[in-house]
Amino acid sequence: MNDDDLNELIDAFTAECEEFLQSMETNLLAMEAAGLKERQAAVKEMFRAAHSIKGAGSMLGFQNVSAAAHTLEDCFVILRDRTDLAALEPTTVSVLLQGVDALKKITIESVQHSDVTTPDQTENLEAIAQIFAQFQAKYGKSEPSPVTAASQSPAQETLKLIFEQQVPALFNRLETELSQADEADLATTVTALKQVYYQLSGLAGMLQLPDFGKVAAALSALIDSPDLTLQRLQSDGWAIAQNLQTARQQILEGRAIDIPEISPSPTLPLSPTPTPPEISPSSTLPEISPSLPVPNPQRPTIRVDLERLTELVNLVGELVINRTNLELQESELRGEVKRIRRNIVDLNQFGGQLREEYDRLSFAEWRGGNGNSGLGKLAAAETEFPMIANGKSSPAHAHFDILEMDRYTEFHSTAAEVIETAQAISQSATKLDTLAMKFERSTDQLRRITEQLRSRVMQLRVVSFSRAVDHLPRALREMCITYDKDVNLLLVGRDTKIDESLLDALRDPLIHLVRNAFDHGIEIPEVRKASGKPASGQIEIEARHQGGQTIITVADDGKGIDPEMIRRKIVTKGLATEEQAQEFSIAELYDFLFWPGFSTTEGVSDLSGRGVGLDVVRTNLRTVRGTVKVDSRLGKGTSFIIKLPLLLSITDALMVKTDHNKIAVPLDAVEEILHIKASEVHIAGNQPMLWWREEFIRLVRMQDLLEYSVLPPDAPSPDPLTQEEIPVLVLASTEGMLAVAVERLIGQQEIVVKPLPPPLSKPRGVLGTTILGDGRVVNILDVDDLVGQPVVNSSIAAVSGKVQEMPASASRSPQILVVDDSYTIRQLLSLTLTRARYRVVQAKDGVDALEKLQNGLDCSLAIVDIEMPRMDGFELLRSIRSTQRFAKIPVAMLTSRSGPKHRQMAMELGANQYFTKPYSEAQLLQAIPKLIHQSII
Predict the structure, then answer these.
(1) pLDDT in tens, 550-582
(2) Spatial separation of the C-alpha atoms in residues 833 and 927, rounded to whole Å
(3) Taking the C-alpha atoms of 243, 245, 246 and 252 in order, what is their torsion angle to the nearest 10 degrees?
(4) Could you tell me how far CA 198 lies from the centroid of its own chain?
(5) Percent of the chain with pLDDT over 90
(6) Distance between CA atoms of 155 and 302, rounded to whole angstroms?
(7) 8 A C-beta contact, residue 162 and residue 276
(8) Which run of H or E residues covers position 623?
(9) Cα torsion 376, 381, 386, 390: sign
(10) What mean pLDDT do residues 206-232 have?
């Protein structure tokens, strides 16, 4: 077995052990609140998990893992046979949890050090042995059972199961390749036989069967021979297959492998695969988990680079966009076919009119031939439409009466050609209609195939949300024991699928939020009882999908967050004056909770007081384009809402038109679509309100909710609130309900959600973008952001003319001067700072920045590039430090020059911080408050 094969088996073993260990921990935690039957089933599952780890560790040579799992398995035997599970003690669960932790550490150490016994492994092995000794002393020794007896030689029984269930499939493949070998395709057969050999050789090495490996080596020698022919391959190959079959039978019978000389027999069939016996924990054979790292050619697996999966997912999104384009073209084609049919009807009517006109003229000619009164008309008709030469109406048939033989003119021929042309066009239209119907069916089939492809591709990268939260019940239980609190953890949406790459970014934020809820939110039992709450608190974690993103809510029923306490802390830490702090809104106050070093706790404990937890939450979420916000009610509890973009989200959206622009609203956030009269709008102060389902909800215009700028249209934007019939969307989110008036409803459409790529930060109220079938890019609304957002310009009085007013808090936020000659860098940096609630002033070089400062610009920080025209960053820094008015302004250099020489020069001239491009948004935002604080001091 080569190193790659071994590493692949070890990776599978590690993943399997993680699942079994998590299963044991979950079952132990569930036993405390379960009934007798559930506890018995849990013990059985834990026994099987320990038993599987023991067998897998033994096969891969991890003897310490096998020994530790065997000891823990014996503990579960005692728990099953010698204890009263109806009166299970919490201390017993705690001790077993410690044993699971020790086994987990031994597994990690064994994989990292190739089963070389380290001092840590010895310590953990002793810890498990002590747990087993405690169980024996407390509950008595377990009597020998068939399982225990069989476990003394697990390798032999495991060997038997593998050769009964797994090896025959390899032999069947070998036989198939030999029987279907072809001279023209011999190279392909040799490649397939090499794969069979690698699997047989790896199996022999893993199970430590050198004799079986020698038999398999004959296959390698055969296919590697330079003079290999089809006849020799089949002749010697069948002999090798027979030898392998004989060796398998000898292993099953427990005999040593002894291969006699056997003549090749190409027609000798392999023996049928025996039916695997039923295995149970109480049988004499240990159970082999289906996920054990044993070669299984029936279900081969491969390891794929994550970037390739990402490319595949992106291609699926492009496929959906192009399918939407095809659907648009199909709709246009059907419309054109209908238009052609309408024109054909008109053309047929025109042809009929021509026929009637000819018949009228013919009748006039007949009347002229039977009376003098018609001679004038007939002469005029023949003059205008002469008779067709060599036709039925030629002068040779002049002795026939007009009723006895038809006479034709050029007018009749023209009318006939028109009618025939109309019929030909009608036939072509029928064919077009048929093609359009086939096109529609093909598009529907493409839709179904695309949906299946998207579903299958997404399954490659998604895992259950339980993978991110299964460790939290154990952590919460330990905190409850340590700090004498009774808190329950409720997990909702454990089966919600999330991208596997988000797991690492979620684990730390979730544990910090749970610790924060436990320490800051949940009161001690005495306080809860005094306030009329149950003594046991509750923390709820919910995961769900909405509008192309994953929303995770961590809520508690504790005391909530006191805004006044945050105000006092802001003033105490010098982050704002007392007057400024009084003007901060609730949302702005909550935002301070995520600042580095900010904590509402007076003292420092093991759980809180260092101001690190929530800072880690926001920093980790930013790495995966996630956001977090707070909603709290004093005395009721606190909720932290995390939003994460999906890797690929294909969702239904309602397309609307507002302010001359198309906007996509996620359909799952639309509670109801209304068309109301202007008389149904109520006014509360200056705020329009709508009576909906027995309550008043806010009514706002869509354009008042959006903060981004668009190109001014040629015509003024229509105000939806002034229309006779107002289209209204009632939007629902975790923040509540909101009625939004739009200009026009366009219709429902399936869209691909494309989040904005870094370094662009997510704008408020915008979830991402999508590309329509005609190639236009449309913004997708983030309903949660919009519902909780205050609106300034929503009053009826502002209809005639909007007055753009900045929020009161904006004038008090710190102002930052950004100096860079690159327009793109200035815009990106300004966008980042604006989203972080800073005011920004831009300057294109040092001269421009110095002029702004001299003209009275009041800034709390300057972020300066080095290499700029007219005046570079060093010259600007020297001028700022030499001028008394500007000397106290903190200056941070942001440049692509990362060498020590430039850094030293900047520090000598008085720079407060030095950043290099490309900059880290998280590090920059983390450093800015400290720099601004220096200017306040």
Answers:
(1) 889 999 999 998 888 888 888 888 888 888 888
(2) 12
(3) 150
(4) 37
(5) 4
(6) 28
(7) no
(8) none
(9) negative
(10) 81
Are 890 and 861 in contact by the 8 Å Cβ rule? The answer is yes
538 pLDDT band, cuts 50/70/90, is: very high
pLDDT of residue 539: 93
CA distances from residue 685 to 350, 689, 698, 699, 795 in whole angstroms, order as listed: 65, 10, 12, 13, 9
- Structure tokens, 209: 């069967």
Q: What is the pLDDT of residue 819?
A: 92
- The pLDDT tens digits for 686-715 are 778 888 887 788 888 888 887 665 555 555
Side chain identity, residue 606: D
User: How many angstroms separate the CA atoms of 175 and 73, rounded?
Assistant: 41
Q: What angle do CA 475, 477, 478 make, to 5 degrees?
A: 65
Total residues belonging to the chain = 937
Pull the structure tokens for residue 394: 């030629």
pLDDT at 502 over 50: yes
| The pairing of beta strand 913-916 with beta strand 891-895 | parallel
Q: What residues are paired with 751 via a beta bridge?
A: 651
CA angle 424, 429, 433 (to 5 degrees): 150
- Tens digits of per-residue pLDDT, 390-422? 444 455 556 666 556 666 667 667 767 777 787
DSSP 808: G
Q: Give the DSSP per-residue string, 598-661.
A: --S-SS--SSSSSS-HHHHHHHHHHTTT-EEEEEEETTTEEEEEEEEE-SSEEEEEEEEEETTE
Distance CA 764, CA 265 (A): 76
DSSP 8-state secondary structure symbol assigned to residue 684: E
Other Cβ atoms closer than 10 A to 491: 16
Listed residue (451, 434, 432, 435) closest to 324, CA to CA: 451
SS (H, E, C) 3-40: HHHHHHHHHHHHHHHHHHHHHHHHHHHHHCCCCHHHHH
- Amino acid at site 167: V
Please give the pLDDT value at position 375. 42
Instruction: Reduce the DSSP state of residue 390 to 3 states and report it.
Output: coil
Whether the upstream peptide bond of residue 525 has omega within 30° of 0, thus cis, is: no
Q: Which residues contact 445 (CB under 8 A, 6 or more apart)?
A: none
The reported pLDDT for the residue numbered 604 is 61
Residue type, 797: A
For 199, the token pair is 């699997």
Amino acid residing at 844: K
Q: Tokens 């028109």, residue?
A: 418
Q: Is 637 left (phi over 0), alpha (psi -120 to 50) or beta?
A: left
